[in-house]
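Technical annex, item 7. During the second reporting period the consortium partners agreed on a shared format for inverse folding records so that results from different sites could be compared directly. Each record opens with the tokenized structure and is followed by the designed sequence. A conforming record, contributed by the partner at site C, is shown below for reference.
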């Protein structure tokens, strides 16, 4: 589902083991391949975010720079 230009949303179901499948369109859009590592972030108020490996370092720098301030 395309919400705005460059923004996307997909519905997935959580299985009995707490797993879900990243939709094919999302895997293709973000070039996620079997064996790739992703970073899962959680915020009680904002929810869960899943980041591909190439975005992890950028986000971690932001997180730790905010902690230091």
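Designed sequence (site C submission):
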């Amino acid at each position: 589902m395309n919400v705005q230009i460059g923004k996307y949303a997909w519905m997935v179901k959580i299985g009995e083991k707490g797993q879900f499948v990243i939709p094919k369109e999302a895997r293709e859009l973000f070039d996620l391949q079997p064996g790739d590592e992703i970073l899962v972030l959680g915020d009680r108020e904002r929810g869960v975010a899943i980041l591909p490996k190439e975005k992890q370092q950028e986000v971690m720098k932001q997180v730790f720079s905010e902690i230091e301030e």
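The radius of gyration is 14 Å. The chain has two domains: 1-35, 37-69. All partners now use this format for quarterly exchanges.
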